[in-house]
Specification:
The chain has 344 residues and is mainly α. The protein has 2 domains: 2-212, no CATH class; 216-342, no CATH class. It is built from 15 helices and 6 strands. The protein has helices at residues 2-24, 31-45, 59-69, 98-110, 113-116, 120-135, 137-140, 168-174, 176-193, 204-212, 216-229, 269-275, 282-294, 296-306, 312-328, and strands spanning 55-58, 161-164, 246-249, 264-267, 332-336, 339-342.
Length: 344
């Protein structure tokens, strides 16, 4: 019981400190928000054990996540109404954020982050973003108006990596969905407050979809090749698809909002709607694991062709985390139609 209480107290303290960082740490750009989401994602994708005392993350790994998170943010944004002008959103209170320029240059030249990762320009820009992180947001993130919290990692530079304090990686994993939604809301609020964005911004929903949405145009372009990869059959029920089918995130978007091409399958509309935001059953998970192993190269090509990130190991780690969390709380998983079962 004492260990459970200690763990609960530490988790509450982590969330309280995170709230203070979002409310009080000084920032002139959106880097603070990108950094928190990057750390949360890395703690899942790189699967540190929850009982590992500390977790070391190379700054170059965080730089890669920054380029992914800002990928496409340099596209013109506008309300689409007559007489309005679309333009790039400012994500800095002064000049445009440097990461935006680097990510957008890579996007225009190389189309997809998967292709970019094999290009020398990606490695060049990762190094440049790593230097930028080392100079600014990494060491300012935990600095408040009157003190420094120092609860995520030691707030002084030591080489080319940071080491999360004991228990921090576990908190990022346990509260990932909550943290991402909270940080995204603060990110959008910041953009509304930047002079120069007021005229071009539409509703909050429009902005949320632009910054963090599932890039539906990319999913639509990928659908024919995903359909062919599955031999024209629904991933879940295995019956022939009548028409093009629907692209489904195997790990629901609501659980992990990232467009990994290995997480995409094609399904009947009825199966997709029935599964909705629920995890699929363990049998489905096992077939999906075999599917992404068998078609890894083909899925990478689909990602490259359609501007989607391809990373099989990251997708598998995300799935392992989601199913582990579901077992921990004995969540229901979807079997077929209206059938569900509780994970033990």
């Amino acid at each position: 019981m004492a260990n459970e209480l200690d763990s609960s107290t530490a988790e509450v303290r982590f969330l309280e400190n995170l709230q203070l960082v979002l409310a009080e740490s000084q920032t002139s750009s959106t880097y603070k928000y990108a950094l928190l989401i990057a750390l949360a994602d890395i703690c899942i994708e790189d699967t540190p054990p929850d009982d590992q005392p500390e977790f070391t993350i190379p700054i170059s790994r965080i730089a890669e996540k920054f380029l992914e998170l800002y990928w496409g943010h340099g596209r013109p944004y506008g309300s689409g109404l007559p007489g309005t002008t679309s333009r790039t959103l400012l994500q800095n209170r002064g000049n445009q954020a440097a990461v935006i320029r680097r990510a957008d240059s890579l996007r225009e030249a190389l189309v997809s982050p998967t292709r970019a990762r094999t290009d020398r320009r990606w490695h060049r820009d990762v190094s440049r973003v790593a230097r930028l992180l080392d100079e600014m947001p990494l060491w300012r993130l935990q600095r408040l108006r009157t003190n420094t919290l120092d609860f995520l990692y030691p707030a002084n530079p030591k080489g080319d990596s940071i080491t999360l304090r004991p228990g921090v990686a576990a908190c990022f994993r346990h509260f990932h969905a909550l943290i991402v939604r909270l940080v995204q809301a603060e990110w959008m609020a910041f953009l509304y407050d930047v002079p120069g964005n007021t005229e071009v911004l539409g509703s909050a929903g429009d902005l949320a979809n632009f910054l963090f949405g599932p890039q539906r145009e990319s999913l639509a372009r990928a659908r024919p090749t995903l359909h062919a990869l599955q031999s024209g059959r629904c991933f879940y029920c295995a019956d022939a698809l009548r028409g093009p089918g629907e692209v489904d995130h195997f790990i629901p978007w609501s659980r992990y909002p990232r467009n990994l091409v290995h997480n995409l399958v094609v399904a009947h509309q009825a199966c997709n709607n029935a599964k909705s935001d629920v995890l699929a059953g363990v049998d489905h998970q096992q077939r999906w694991t075999s599917h992404v192993a068998r078609y890894d190269a083909e899925l990478c090509e689909i990602g490259i062709a359609n501007g989607l990130m391809a990373d099989r190991l990251a997708a598998l780690h995300v799935a392992d985390w989601c199913y582990a969390e579901a077992r921990r709380i004995h969540a229901d998983v979807w079997i077929m139609g209206k059938r569900y079962e509780r994970l033990a």
